[in-house]
Amino acid sequence: MYQTYVQVILAVTHHKVDRIFDYGVPKQWEASICVGGRVIVPFGQKNVRTEGYIMGISTETKVPKQKIKAVLDVLDEGRPVFTAVTLELAKRMKQKYFCTLSQCLQAIMPTGIRTKNIWYAQLQYVDTTRLTEQEQEVVAYLEQKNGTMPLQDLESSFGNRYQYVIQTLKEKGILRFQQRTFQNKYKKETRYVTLTEDTAVLSQAIEKAQKEKRLLGQRKILAILQEVKRISIEDLKQKTGVTQSPIQTLLQKGVLVEEREQQKRDVFCLEDFQPSKPFTPTAEQKQALEQMLAERKKEKKRPVVLHGVTGSGKTELYMQLVQEVLNDGKQAIVLVPEISLTPQIMERFISRFGDVVSVTHSRLSVGERLDQWRKARDGEISVIIGARSALFLPFSNVGVIIMDEAHESSYYSDITPKYNARDVAKDLAELTGALLVMGSATPDLESYHKAIMGEYLLVELKERAKGNVLPHTTVVDMRKELEEGNRSAFSRALQGAIRENLAQKRQTMLFLNRRGYATFVSCRKCGEAMTCPDCNVTYTYHAKENILLCHYCGRQEQVPKHCPVCGSSYIRYFGTGTQKIEEETKRLFPDAKILRMDLDTTSQKNSHAKILKKFGKGEADILIGTQMIAKGHDFPNVTLVGILAADLALHANNYTAAENCFQLVTQAAGRAGRDTLPGEVYIQTYQPEHPAIQTAAAQDYEGFYAQEILLRRAMEYPPFTNLFSVLITGEKEQEVVETAQKLWALMEHFKERAGCTVLSPSPAALPKFRGEYRWRVLVKCKDIQRLQSFVLYTVEKVQKKSSKTVYFHLALQPQNIV
Asked: Nearest to residue 22, comparing CAs of 51, 63, 50?
């Protein structure tokens, strides 16, 4: 029946259909299909139009001929969405992150191109003698809509009681349900006009326009086009000042001919950037670059851990490494953990490499992101800067993958597939033969340990690039401040330092990793705290909007005037966030110009860049922010950094809490004194004796590593064992708890045979989220294969007997066990 067959993975995420389906290819599509392309195929008993991804092409099939269905359509003009490399990457992700191949492919393909299928109700014929009054009502409504409309809209127009009526009309043959496929291509088109080649028509139009005064607009248009021959409609309007009306008239009369040209959107203007040249590296930088280039030449490359103190010139090394890659005709991927870091690193790369660079991140429009993907596919760019999704751009010849601030938790995806960008980058480097460079002043302990053991290459930069020393650090014990009557969020020493800095016209950065105004709102009479009913966590008060906001699910509530439990009016705000720090800063330093940078002030497009540009130009004296200001930024005039509540991260319910605290404090402190001016850092804490605080104050990574790695070994945490998390969720708490207990009991029965340690089931750190209860079982084992087999076997056994409303979420080596 068919000469060609395709092996297709459906765009359906259910695990029961996570397998290859064979489809026949009609002759009209044979020349258009390719591995990695997308097609529309019929699926199921109702032959629902379904998007699919071509994994292979063959001339034979084992499926009986009478069961083979045909491809209905080929998408994307027959061009592949996936390369051979990204298809293989998706297969690896499926094995590592316990999800379907379809979910992995959908994570890899560009945002915005998914098709949407809509059922339409279509009127076939009308025989009113056979229809009830209600049926006639539906038919009359459809006739007003030209005989067809989306089925869902039709049902919504009449309500649930008419669903039976609509179904009856279908059974009588009066209505037909038909599925239509829609796809927004997000293409940007520019409309151009030229003069007609018909000289008679043109002469007549020119003569008429010159005679009649009312045709001034047409006269201007014809005059311009006699000079330039071809012009965009937008430019034509600007040059002549005419509206669309005279242009449309000339188009309708055939005097003008319209042409449409597709263009890819640019996300920056090259003229805004001054070209730069490479710096001459210091002796230490030169040695580091030579080490990385030597590793790059090897057939089997080790990932590189580039451990450089803050201000050591890691970005310049990135650029010189990228230049070597470009010289070889290859491409570079540069990952940054925060959108807030993109403007600065983008400016430096564009100034050096020009328009071969582009940027992609979630604050761009869907069309802008899609066009950067197309530029990568079409070979129009060679360097991409972006968040973790930049890994999936369809480059044909990747030479280097750079992860800036590689220790950051934002490199972990919290939606399925819950992948670790560091591991995916490692796989991508293996598949492409590229060098993976993970740069940080505070590498994650596991990567650093692998580097110490020789599995990774350790490259170190121990000195600042400009020869300046690391900032002087003062640890302030806030317990003493409180004892001595200072209830302010600012210690007296920090207040004095800010005043001195303002007097010297120097800039200050204040870091607090908690947004909002107050961390919770409570009744002083009965103690009731205002809590999100969907997540069982306290609301955060946001003063500017005067609302209570759940930072987990986004639920908003008005601030109550009376306690909902006891009716008291004694409502009080407790705790401190960046909004409150901003208010207090303005009170203490009324003449200072202040900016705040957190999730609330950076919700709009380009807001990060605008705030950073203002601060960089000296238009503000003090920048207050959360962790998005704590890393990567380089402001020469910043000589003072204040870290408020430095020990916040120590209270996290995670074995990496001390590591996260050390990283945040060290990174934030590194923003001071990065140029010729000396830097000063004040670390305010209620736990000044904690090793993470002490080593961060000394900028002593090796000291922190030496202490923390001993603790990890003693407690059997990674990197000395492997950790597997099973999160069980559901809307019924009792079902969730019982399922967790059953899983734990089964694991206890088999654990000795498997060589695993099973921790008792317990509520997750966030026990309720968006209306679902959450319990967790953690399993440890030194053998990763045995651990994986053990967990998958026991989960499958319990899942078969569990309620369908209970869900299992698996994560190997979880970084976030909230």
From this structure: 63
What the block records as the tokens of 791 is 């967990």
Helices 133-144 and 163-171 pack at an angle, to 10 degrees, of: 80
Distance CA 741, CA 775 (A): 10
Sign of CA dihedral 73, 75, 77, 80: negative
Q: What is the 3-state secondary structure (H, E, C) of 664-725?
A: HHHHHHCCCCCCCCCCEEEEEECCCCCHHHHHHHCCCHHHHHHHHHHHHHHHCCCCCCEEEE
Q: Give mean pLDDT, residues 538-544.
A: 81
CA 318 to chain centre: 22
What does the alpha-carbon distance between residue 103 and residue 416 come to, in Å, rounded to a whole number?
A: 7
| Whole-number Cα distances in Å, 621 to 1, 284, 589, 627, 671 | 75, 34, 10, 19, 15
Segment among 115-124, 162-171, 605-614, 618-627 with least mean pLDDT: 605-614
Residues contacting 608, CB < 8 A, separation 6+? 339, 340, 342, 343, 363, 597, 602, 628
**pTM, whole model, 2 decimals?**
0.85
Strand order in the sheet with 540-542: 540-542, 547-549, 556-558
Handedness of CA 94, 97, 98, 100 (dihedral sign): negative
- Write down the pLDDT at residue 84: 96
Cis ω for the linkage preceding 763 (within 30 of 0): no
Given the structure tokens 């969907």, which residue do they identify?
Answer: 534
E strand spans, 411-517: 435-440, 457-461, 472-477, 507-511
Q: Which residues contact 392 (CB under 8 A, 6 or more apart)?
A: 86, 89, 107, 108, 109
| Structure confidence at residue 532 (pLDDT) | 86
CA distance 124 to 133: 18
Q: Is 265 exposed, middle or buried (0-12, 13-18, 19+ CB in 10 A)?
A: middle
Phi/psi for 214 (5° steps) reads -70, -15
Q: Contact at 8 Å (CB) between 758 and 721? A: no
* CA–CA separation, 414 and 646 (whole Å): 25
- Candidates 695, 692, 669, 670; CA nearest to 682 is 669
Does pLDDT of 265 surpass 90? no
Query: Which pairs count as long-range contacts for 343-349, CB under 8 Å and 24+ apart, including other chains?
Result: 343/608, 343/609, 343/612, 343/613, 344/612, 344/632, 344/633, 344/634, 345/315, 345/385, 345/404, 345/632, 346/268, 346/385, 347/273, 348/276, 348/315, 348/319, 349/319, 349/322, 349/383, 349/385
Cα distance between the two ends of the chain:
54
β-strands 594-597, 622-625 pairing: parallel
Q: What is the pLDDT of residue 600?
A: 81
In total, the chain counts a number of residues equal to 818
Calpha distance 237→538 (Å, rounded) = 55
Report the distance separating Cα 161 and Cα 573, nearest Å. 49
Whether the Cβ atoms of residue 517 and residue 584 lie closer than 8 Å to each other:
no
Q: Which of 399, 436, 432 is nearest to 421 (CA)?
A: 436
Instruction: Please tell me the distance from the alpha carbon of residue 796 to that of residue 787, in angstroms, as a whole number.
Output: 14
> Which residues is 461 bridged to in the sheet?
308
